[in-house]
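Re: beginner question about structure tokens

> Can someone show what the tokenized structure looks like for a real chain? I only ever see the sequence side.

Sure, here's an example I had lying around. Input first:
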Amino acid sequence: MQLTLNSVAAAALLAPSVHALLRFSCSQLVVERLDPLVYPGVTGSPHVHQVIGGNAFNASMAYPQMDIPSEATCTTCTFAEDFSNYWTAVLYFRARNGTFKRVQQMANAGFEGSKGGMTVYYTPSYNSGKVTAFKPGFRMIVGNPTYRTQAEASKFRQLTYTCLENIMTRTGETMDMPKKPCKAGIMANIRFPTCWDGKNLDSPDHSSHVAYPASGTFESGGACPSTHPVKIPQLFYEVIWDTRPFNNPNDWPTDGSQPFVWSYGDPTGYGNHGDYMFGWKGNALQTAMDSNCNINCPQLKSQSISQGNQCSKQISVNEDIDGWLTELPGGMPVTGAGGKVLY
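And the corresponding structure tokens:
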């Protein structure tokens, strides 16, 4: 994947202030109710996800029974050796009459032409330190879909939203959903913990095997806790939701609240979360992290965005997720603090 000069300039402006990172586009693979991490083997998980990455994604992805890079035949990502799967919930607009409409995703700056999906970052360090790439079978979750308050969501660092004035906006992050129409859409920002216990590829809650620095932050080079001593790359998703078709104030709730709700029934935004299953081929990710690649990475095999757009997976759950719906897919209720059903 060789970005054009204009794309590199845009990427440089958007990327964090680091000397090395991978920043790349992954187009949409599938949108459906599957969750092989939390609900393995279940066809029809409780809420809808949007998924990117390798086409081996399915309801059952237990390791070592399944080796993702061996099973996948294509990837929607522009780094062609990345067959990992990355997924988040899906955003819906709730109209005044109580019906729901799925909000589409849109391409990020520098990745025009991408079919929805999201932008993925792997940052080795902000201070030239070395990191250990994820191992085969590694998986994790950040965030909790049941959270509805800032106090709860504060357990996780850097799960935020950006109300885009334009596609280049990168300031004004909030922990809850924007309260006003956003001219260029809403960007969900999902940053994962950067310390690993060095032993477990997963944990019962899919998050206890990773942790945040014990002091300081990842950006400041903070030390990892003794329980999780291994520094891993910072994995970061940017997902841009095209809320522009829903910006007419006359379509928003009459009580002044915002109209967007996550597919897991969250109108606050505090339940923001992301899932990850590592699936890079061989030693490719470690090579990239050791090489201090800066956006472009000649050490890795790449493909064009149009090639990534062609990778797909057959839908497993046959249901309407795109029409005007009387309820969220799966019959998911919209809930507030304490699990109180709102509608």
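Each token stands for a local structural state, so reading them left to right follows the chain. Confidence is low (pLDDT under 50) at residues 1-13.
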